[in-house]
């Protein structure tokens, strides 16, 4: 019996580990060209595609490629992103998406010849915040931490020192599609590369507080 339990625990551990592998994820708006190799996802981002809803521009689009898995509860997700950005608004990074009216996308966005750390938060309508970089960077790490009804978004150039760039509301107690996004609203597409993608489960904060009060 003890041996059976040990085998079962091993199988469960393997299943849990493999659940985050890139091969197990799903496409929303699959691009024409993509591949997974050595733990990296490379995609040629679909030309003239994006995620945006109503505000400022007056249109709604959700036709850009998004490679995701669904997660519940609280978690930390991070990825290393690089891209051959060419045209205005070419972008690549993470996306957390509940539905077409509620999502967060964040990463590098190429605007007016400059690299920007960009975040779009959409709840009914979209907003947009940017941090302009002084010079081009070969890659950037993007991390998002979902706790209760908030998502904190960070960036890093070395996967060691992370700086917060946004704190945004996202409905809690709701499953979220979490994954890798690229868009090329004005351009003819470009190649984006995503490495070291990882989602780490975090124990529910409310439950931890309850346990602490009810020892």
Brief descriptors of the model:
mainly beta; disordered N terminus; Jelly Rolls; 7-stranded antiparallel beta sheet; 215 residues
Note down, in words, how this protein is organized.
The chain has a 7-stranded antiparallel β-sheet, with no helix packed on it. Helices cover 12% and strands 53% of the residues. The chain is mostly beta strands and 215 residues long. The model is unreliable at 3-19 (pLDDT under 50). The protein has a single domain (23-203), classed as Jelly Rolls, CATH 2.60.120.
Précis, in short:
The protein has 215 residues and is mainly beta.
Outline the biggest β-sheet: 7 strands, antiparallel
Q: Count of DSSP E strands?
A: 16
What's the number of domains?
1
Average the pLDDT over all residues and give the rounded result: 92
Percent in helix: 10-25%
Rg calc? 18 Å
Choose one word for the global shape.
globular
Q: Estimate what percentage of residues fall within beta strands.
A: over 45%
Kindly provide the name of the CATH class.
Answer: Mainly Beta
CATH architecture: Sandwich
Look up the CATH topology. Answer: Jelly Rolls
Q: Based on helices, strands and strand pairing, what is the structural class?
A: mainly beta
Q: Treating each run of at least 4 consecutive H or I residues as one helix, how many helices?
A: 2
List the helices and strands and how they pair.
Blueprint: H1 2-18, E1 26-28, E2 33-37, E3 40-44, E4 51-53, E5 60-62, E6 66-71, E7 74-83, E8 90-99, E9 102-111, E10 114-123, E11 125-132, E12 140-147, E13 150-156, E14 163-169, E15 176-183, E16 191-202, H2 205-213
Antiparallel strand pairs: 1-6, 2-3, 3-16, 4-5, 6-15, 7-12, 7-16, 8-9, 8-15, 9-10, 10-11, 12-13, 13-14
């Amino acid at each position: 019996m003890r041996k059976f339990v040990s085998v079962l625990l091993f199988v469960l551990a393997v299943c849990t580990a493999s659940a985050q592998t890139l091969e197990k994820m799903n496409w929303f708006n699959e691009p024409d060209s993509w591949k997974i190799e050595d733990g990296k996802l490379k995609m040629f981002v679909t030309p003239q595609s994006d995620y945006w809803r109503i505000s400022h521009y007056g249109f709604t689009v959700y036709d850009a490629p998004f490679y995701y898995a669904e997660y519940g509860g609280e978690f930390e997700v991070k990825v290393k992103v690089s891209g051959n950005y060419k045209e205005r608004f070419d972008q690549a990074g993470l996306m957390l998406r509940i539905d077409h009216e509620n999502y967060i996308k964040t990463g590098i966005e190429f605007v007016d010849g400059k690299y920007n750390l960009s975040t779009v938060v959409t709840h009914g309508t979209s907003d947009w915040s940017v941090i302009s970089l002084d010079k081009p960077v070969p890659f950037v790490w993007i991390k998002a931490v979902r706790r209760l009804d908030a998502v904190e978004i960070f960036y890093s150039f070395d996967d060691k020192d992370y700086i917060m760039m946004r704190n945004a509301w996202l409905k809690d107690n709701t499953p979220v599609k979490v994954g890798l996004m690229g868009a090329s609203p004005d351009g003819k597409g470009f190649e984006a590369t995503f490495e070291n993608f990882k989602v780490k489960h975090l124990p529910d904060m409310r439950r931890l507080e309850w346990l602490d009060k009810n020892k």
